[in-house]
Design brief:
Blueprint lengths: L7 E5 L2 E5 L30 E5 L2 E5 L5 E5 L2 E6 L7 H12 L8 H5 L6
């Protein structure tokens, strides 16, 4: 690749949406960003995020390797990650973070006003 980055696919509002790898805005155009004007490579197919169902949660690892954990259509956790994880490792992420919640539910992490997890 000649220095042009690929769009980053992320899970938003229950669907996969491509985002500009430079400014993070939605990738409306197929060749360059409507917002920042930089060219990018619009790639579909096998580059889409990894999605795993884990009980009541949906775990999505985007093409930028960030992990988002959703309950229904609401994101309850965002984890910055630098490596691609397997489906089993994504399930382990949910179990790992659930142990820090009093209720055993991840939505407690984002909604706990008193800071006690």
């Amino acid at each position: 690749m000649s220095g042009i980055k690929e769009v980053e696919w992320m899970w938003e509002y229950g669907v996969y949406i491509p985002f500009c790898p430079y400014c993070g805005e939605p990738a409306y155009e197929k060749d360059s960003c409507y917002f920042c004007g930089k060219p990018y490579k619009y790639v579909e197919g096998e580059y889409k995020p990894t999605e795993v169902q884990c009980g009541e949660y949906t775990v999505v690892q985007n093409t930028n390797n960030h992990i988002h954990i959703y309950k229904d259509d609401s994101m309850v956790m965002h984890i910055q990650c630098t490596v691609k994880k397997t489906e089993e490792e994504l399930r382990e992420e949910v179990e790992f973070y659930k142990q820090f919640c009093k209720s055993g539910k991840l939505d407690q992490i984002c909604n706990d006003d008193e800071g006690e997890i």
